[in-house]
Amino acid sequence: MARSLFRKKSLEQLQHDAALGLNDAHGTTALPKVLRVKDLTFMGVAAVIGAGIFSTIGTAAFNGGPGVIFLFLITAVTCGFTALCYAEFASRVPVAGSAYTYSYVTFGEVVAWIIGWALILEYAIGNIVVAISWSAYFNNILKAININLPDWLTTGYQTAKMNYDAAIEAGKPVSDLVYNTAPTFAGFRFIVNLPAFIIVGLITILAYIGINESKKSANFMVGLKIVVLAFIAVIGFWFIFSNGTTSNWSPFLPNGMTGVLKGVSSVFFAYIGFDAISTTAEECANPQRDLPRGMIYSLILCTIIYVIITLVITGMVHYSEFEGKADPLAYVFDRINMHKIGFVISVSAVIASTSVMLVFQIGQPRIWMSMSRDGLLPKPFSRVSKRFKTPGFATIITGFLVGIPVLFIDDKLMTDLTSIGTLFAFVLVCGGVLYLPHKPKGGGGFRLPYINGKFIIPVLTVLFVILFRDRLQNAFSNMQSEGYQEILFIVFVAAAIIISILTFIRNYSLIPILGVLFCLYLMIEIPAKSWMVFFGWMGLGLLIYLMYGRRSSKLAQAATAAARA
User: Fold this and answer.
1) 399 vs 395: CA distance, rounded Å
2) Among the entry's GO cellular component annotations, what is one (predicted)?
3) Where in the chain is the domain with CATH 1.20.1740.10?
4) At what angle do helices 287-316 and 57-64 cross, to 10 degrees?
5) Closest by Cα among 366, 368, 371, 377 to 547
6) Which of 60, 145, 277, 353 has its CA 20 to 30 A from that of 16?
7) Which CATH number applies to 2-148+195-451+509-564: 1.20.120.80, 2.120.10.30, 2.40.50.180, 1.20.1740.10?
8) 536-548 confidence digits (pLDDT tens)
């Protein structure tokens, strides 16, 4: 059984099929190759500059102060290591499927399935958060033009119930809360986030119509929001230096690095999506050249934008004012009585969130399409629309998977879960590069630079242990009464030591190992309760694989046919 769980796809066969322009060995028509490096870069920016910069950046700034820019830089470096690993995979395996396909080649079928299941957290579940953020900003725009939708049509049921319960527990009045004022049908409170549902439906239609139309829409929205963010930066720095509010940057690290690291989920969520570019490998005109460039260019551009905007908002108002602020950019300009600019920011937030949803709604169906081609999901998921040349059925299912929950669910519960699922995929991508067959120089495409980590990784691990020796000692001293968070820290240190030993023995390449370690560290800083939900999600996915995918996969069928022959 173990042998069947870890059966692998052939890298040579994937490259052969890609070279012939085939979806699979049966010769069905490939997706149209219309994406170039500019389109990929813009898609990366479209995916990254969205809900993070207009929403979760406020929480991170409240916890870490202006010094949260260091967390953006750390996260960018982590994503940079991962992007280089993605780039080599995309160059070597230029087909749709992203980390799922890459894991199938290097680790085997069961790991590939687990990654595909985890990526649902990144794309589909992540889009729930973005859609809810979109709805909040869109509702602000409507109020600014005197259109007031009832609260029970713009709030998720779970959010309304949580706010109601919290007010009851705190002894606060509840008569005006949406849970108390919403209409009742058949004994149930009718509370739904209708704008979020509508935008998911419209984005799904656009993703279904075609990649060309999606590309043009994404490029337009990215260009517009970059112009708006540049305008915000200029006005913000002018205000800071002309009004002498640079004092808001002091202290730069009010809560030390501990406070900065509290924003891991918020900041990493801001970067989620740059890897969505790799799901479009099959639609790239020159994936070996353009995919690596698109990933790196978009990552650099997004990091610059995040650092600048963070400095602007923490310079305009004191970091302590961002507690509970879901719209930090609009808040800072309203705070200094620039209400018209706050309105412009709300409009740009709607545009930015729309572009994120579009890229995610493009990425998820292509992963499902790849899984279906391999027999791990039913055949309809790989069905390509004859008219629009997109994975039509998978796109529609993705729309329902995102659209139905946004009506009812609370976004705060999804952010950590999305981050942990994405980091898990990143760990396996970085680790998977180490197991790719050696690629000779001059072989074409992107080649990850080899730097021997034999001594560097062990030295960095020793330095890390010395730097965090107090935390490690406390964790061991209070093992019985310690929280799950510190137990995760102990597990990380043990994993880092084991990886260091293996790197010393096997001369592993530095960049992939750094990617693995950075991603693992960010994972253990995510609240432990999210790990419980993550393990439950993974357990459900593994159960589905054992009941369906293991027997129906094409590799299993091929093995059965060979045995009978």
Assistant:
1) 6
2) membrane
3) 2-148+195-451+509-564
4) 60
5) 377
6) 277
7) 1.20.1740.10
8) 888 998 899 988 8
